[in-house]
Design goal:
Elements (H helix, E strand, L loop, with lengths): L4 H15 L32 H20 L4 H18 L3 H14 L4 H13 L3 H13 L4 H18 L3 H14 L4 H13 L3 H14 L4 H17 L4 H14 L4 H13 L3 H14 L3 H18 L3 H14 L4 H13 L3 H14 L3 H18 L3 H14 L4 H14 L2 H7 L1
Length: 427
């Protein structure tokens, strides 16, 4: 039982649309399938869709006609075409994948360069868990694929099948390396090769793959910074190369100023290597980028300590501490350090002002008494301001009426000023 031209074309169109594949390229001189003539509006009523049972019956009859044509031994390209159309009909119209698979394989055998047949056969082989046969078709498609990136994707997919499904890690690694050689900008391929190199503890290869991944992410600075940090961690922990690791952490910090991991690592490495100037520079950069005033002040305070203790640069330490004080005027840690440097530098007026701030900042009565008496002695002994000395000694007595040192100092200062009524009141 035969089909008319329109019915044959409809069967072919159904198969093509459901699979999303193009027709096989026509061989020269072969008989072309018929096509629908163009319709015009008002040319007549449309035919209702063919019932499914009728479509199946007609498809089976059409398959028999194809088999009869194959018995006539047409040329090789025509044989491939017929098998491919029969496979599509079996898969889509008859929904019989097992019957379709041999036809797809026959199409590949007769037309090894026809990609839709290769892909369809591979898809059904994977679905049937016939993995060795499916693997061969990755290589078959790669041989007829022109673009290197497309070839690389095929070898990557082959590697995934080998690793994830078959557990063949050595074969997967070989496929990944082939894919990487074809395309060094494919992030999935580079990630797969990096994972295999890490599993093999091949740290040099891991570093190389991470570098290529970072280069592939040229448009995303945050992602590049994260990959660069991973490279630095690898150099530091696995290869014991802290100097090179520090360089990579610096690169990551420049790419992404919010990369706190890089900042913390740089501070640790620079401190361990006694690279004080680099450590100070990192702390100042951290302070500049921080949004929390407390974090800014903390970074500046640590930079000041390093300047003073390791480089002997008191003036720079004072400059940084003054910046930290402006951010947190009542921070006893900053004020205490600043007062120490003012005293050693002979900046007495600035020392007095800092001690006054410490007096206001502390809640402890004993500490407040100590600062108050110290200010009074500075006015009395160093600055020569008797009135201020009296005022601060009186505050000290208010804090501790039994403070013998303050009472004795007041007695002497009252005599100097001739403040006899106050001296009498003391007695």
């Amino acid at each position: 039982m035969g089909f008319d031209d329109g019915e044959i074309t409809a069967l072919r169109r159904d198969a093509t649309e459901e699979l999303g594949q193009d027709d096989l390229v026509e061989e020269p001189g072969s008989k072309l399938p018929p096509t629908f003539p163009p319709t015009e509006e008002g040319s007549g009523p449309r035919k209702p869709p063919t019932p499914r049972v009728d479509r199946t019956r007609r498809a089976r009859a059409w398959l028999k006609e194809c088999e009869q044509e194959l018995q006539n031994q047409p040329d090789v390209r025509r044989v491939a075409r017929l098998h491919f159309e029969m496979a599509r009909t079996c898969e889509t119209i008859l929904e019989d994948a097992r019957r379709a698979l041999p036809h797809y394989q026959a199409a590949v055998e007769h037309a090894p360069d026809y990609v839709p047949a290769i892909r369809a056969a591979r898809r059904l082989l994977v679905g049937a868990r016939m993995f060795p046969e499916a693997l061969a078709l990755f290589d078959a498609e790669a041989r007829v694929t022109r673009h290197a990136r497309d070839k690389a994707t095929l070898f990557f997919l082959k590697g995934r099948l080998l690793e994830d499904t078959l557990g063949n890690r050595e074969g997967a690694e070989e496929a990944y390396q082939t894919a990487r050689a074809l395309d060094r900008s494919h992030t999935a391929i580079l990630g797969a090769t990096e994972q295999r190199s890490y599993a093999n503890q091949s740290w040099t290869h891991v570093d190389r793959n991470l570098a290529e991944l970072a280069n592939a992410a040229a448009s995303d600075d945050a992602h590049r910074a994260a990959l660069t940090i991973r490279r630095a961690q690898l150099l530091e922990s696995r290869q014991q190369r802290p100097e090179q690791a520090a360089e990579l952490y610096e690169t990551a910090f420049q790419l992404d100023p919010n990369a706190s991991i890089a900042v913390q690592a740089l501070k640790r490495l620079y401190y361990g290597q006694h690279r004080w100037r680099d450590l100070i520079r990192t702390l100042e950069a951290e302070a500049q980028l921080a949004t929390d005033p407390a974090l800014k002040a903390s970074a500046l305070y640590r930079a000041a300590r390093i300047n003073a203790e390791h480089l002997g640069n008191r003036d720079e330490a004072i400059r940084l501490l003054e910046q930290a004080r402006d951010l947190g005027p009542n921070d006893p840690l900053v004020l205490g350090e600043l007062s120490r440097h003012y005293e050693s530098g002979g900046r007495l007026q600035a020392l007095v002002e800092t001690l006054e701030a410490l007096t206001e900042a502390t809640e402890d009565t004993a500490e407040r008494l100590t600062y108050t008496q110290r200010i009074a002695r500075l006015y009395e002994e160093e600055l020569g301001d008797v009135d201020q000395a009296i005022s601060w000694h009186e505050r000290a007595v208010q804090l501790d009426p039994t403070s013998l040192s303050s009472l004795q100092a007041l007695s002497l200062l009252y005599r100097v000023r001739g403040a006899w009524p106050k001296l009498i009141d003391m007695c």
